[in-house]
Amino acid sequence: MEWVDGGVTLPQGFRASGVAAGLKKAKKDLALLVSTVPAAAAGVFTTNLVKAAPLMVTAERLQKGAAQALIVNSGNANACTGAEGYADAVAMAGLAAAALKLPEELVLVCSTGVIGQRLPLAKIKAALPAAVAALGEEGRDAAEAILTTDTVVKEAAVRFSLSGHRCAVGGMAKGSGMIHPNMATMLAFLTTDVAVEPGLLRQALKDAVDQSFNMITVDGDSSTNDMVVAMANGCAGNPVISTPGPEYRTFVEALTAVAVALAKKVARDGEGATRLIEVRIKGARTLADARTAARAIAASNLVKAAVFGRDANWGRILCAAGYSGASFNPSAVDIFLGAEQVAQAGAGLPFSEERASKELEKDPVVIAVDFKEGDCAATAWGCDLTYDYVSINASYRT
Amino acid sequence: MEWVDGGVTLPQGFRASGVAAGLKKAKKDLALLVSTVPAAAAGVFTTNLVKAAPLMVTAERLQKGAAQALIVNSGNANACTGAEGYADAVAMAGLAAAALKLPEELVLVCSTGVIGQRLPLAKIKAALPAAVAALGEEGRDAAEAILTTDTVVKEAAVRFSLSGHRCAVGGMAKGSGMIHPNMATMLAFLTTDVAVEPGLLRQALKDAVDQSFNMITVDGDSSTNDMVVAMANGCAGNPVISTPGPEYRTFVEALTAVAVALAKKVARDGEGATRLIEVRIKGARTLADARTAARAIAASNLVKAAVFGRDANWGRILCAAGYSGASFNPSAVDIFLGAEQVAQAGAGLPFSEERASKELEKDPVVIAVDFKEGDCAATAWGCDLTYDYVSINASYRT
After folding, report:
1. Residues A221, A301: Cα–Cα separation, whole Å
2. How far apart are CA B198 and CA A117, in angstroms?
3. Three-state SS for B16?
4. Cβ neighbours around B259 below 10 Å, total
5. Marked catalytic residue, from A112, A149, A185, A217
């Protein structure tokens, strides 16, 4: 597996574009992603009871396991918009299908932006010809058009081989910029030219998401629009993966690698963040325990604020693991900040405050916790809690 | 029921004191609370897997349902201190028992302060004679001595009648000031002169805590030392309450009122907070749904930051209810900020930004959500998220 520059258009047979439709003031806000042939497709969606209209439309269409194009707008989430919002989402996909001359049921639709406002369909309709004309081999404009208040474009891609065929996985994501009121958060799109059956693509995506997007946290507020979509168009020409054998595992590894890379970019670009926090749990009895504890530590406001202040507050780490719901023996736990061990068997060590504080200045900050009870491990990612987070989220209308 | 000034010593037969033992730099840090006769006693403890040593000692002793005295120190949590910490907690209770000439098993022990450091027992021993000499009818010194970085003393008390006997419930609490590293959080002590069987006292305390201390949130980090203890010494002379009849209900109402008053003081004094947030859910199908949703909204960083910025972000309120785990129909929900309705049937209304912003300037800020599906209601309390919260929790060692 080889890391390469690029995003959703690196795999063969995918084109993308991003244009400004006027939903945001000056920036690109409308993206298209199109495969030359129908692709196997799968999605993972927010568990929030409140689901945005486009998410419902896309989830319904993905039940058949196939898609050929995706239209995404930023600047308006089309969430909490009732029956009219649902009709708008269907209409938006319909406009894209007509412009691309594709069957409607093969077109997926996503929105991200302000909650509770009707989608300006006329602006999207007016911009579609330019978006279709701009479709090309370069994914960066699309990656830019899906952003809201993210500070950087988020792309990742890898190349690998399957049965002698050259394959690729590419992806783009938008993260947790919620400067606008009620901004709806995380979107990620993964493409691959691997030929794989839809059922296995779904399983592969679930595995990849469990290790990546489900292991990041910015502020614990999971949104109404969160969605990850994968499309596999088979253009690499490999024999179709139809069993969970070695080819499947190679594919999952590549998909997971791209998903993890994008997820870390999202966490690192969390609102107001200055540093990525990586929390590694090992020695847990179950994978669920490891994941639960890692996520709770990464999500703790007290841990996040301590990292911002370079304060080696290991008690907050143990405390967060303790209330996470994970099962472990608090008297067995070792804790490390980077290379500096700060606690052993659940009690503090006389560590160097200076070295510990230095570890908390690094980017990423690595917090390692060993439960010393089993063989299961998990890693979660978050970011520090800063004055800017409060400023960004307090000051929209005032 | 009548609200009166006072705290733990308002009920007959309770004396208290608070002195400076030198665990904190200059402030009072050692409190005693003593009943003239053995009292029925009950406790509710943190669900954190990581439990402080004094909490374990107190929980063990409360299994018999009786206590006569309580010793509390601030400045050191005696948490994450291993077997030595447990021995220290037993020794601390033993010192108090000797000084008060009481059986050891009737003395409870609490600590709050820095995690991971051994308790300075010699300082506590040296200060005990002064603490015993200072025991009196005034509870304020004790209420002061249990504080850590709280900005105000937290006391509450009510008077009421049972079978013609004049009764009282009093209480004191310390809240969520965590300026020090790993400060362990919430303690509350409730006293009453009502005669009640230990089993019913336990049930009454659980009911009261479920509506008060279990419904507040400052930052979602539940601590290693959280504990609420109630002592009922029977000095009011009422016939012992031994069945859940009208007298029991009157008692629970008084106990709950004091617990809610203290809990709101704790939330209002949350780190860096400028305003109390009261979240009222009604129309839920179950009490659990109402409580879960109310707590999630009060705990949401995005909601808390929006209140700080007086930004009428109702979408964040609906979003938090949506991920809380509570069951409801998002398309039915009405949302009010104070008197201003901002959403109806799950979608936004054209409301007055100015009036909504004014509602968010009030203290408390009232957020009311109607699920319109059932008869269950619950209220939770929190506080806004401010620059000072980040400052307080980032800047201890640097």
Report:
1. 12
2. 56
3. strand
4. 29
5. A185
Q: Which residues fall within 8 angstroms of residue A65, CB to CB, at 6 or more apart?
A: A40, A41, A42, A198, A199, A201, A202
What is the average pLDDT score of chain A?
A: 91
Chain A neighbors of B221, CB-CB under 8 A: 300-302, 316, 319-320, 323
Sequence-distant (6+) residues with CB within 8 A of B282 are B290, B368, B369, B370, B371, B376, B377
Q: Both tokens of residue B353?
A: 């930004």
Mean pLDDT lowest for which of A123-127, A157-161, A337-341, B391-395? Answer: B391-395
Say whether A274 is catalytic: no
Contact A387 B387 (CB under 8 A): yes
Q: Which domains does chain A have, with CATH numbers?
A: 2-265 (3.60.70.12), 276-394 (3.10.20.340)
Total-model pTM: 0.81
Q: What ipTM does this complex have?
A: 0.75
Instruction: Say whether B396 and A300 touch across the interface (CB within 8 A).
Output: no
Find the CB nearest B222 among A223, A323, A398: A323
Region A218-229: mean pLDDT is: 72
Could you report the per-residue pLDDT of A168-196, keeping only the tens digit for each?
999 999 986 543 334 456 889 999 999 99
Alpha helices per DSSP H over B63-109: 82-100
Q: How many residue pairs bridge chain A and chain B with CB atoms within 8 Å of each other?
A: 219
Give the nearest chain B residue to A353 (CA atoms): B397
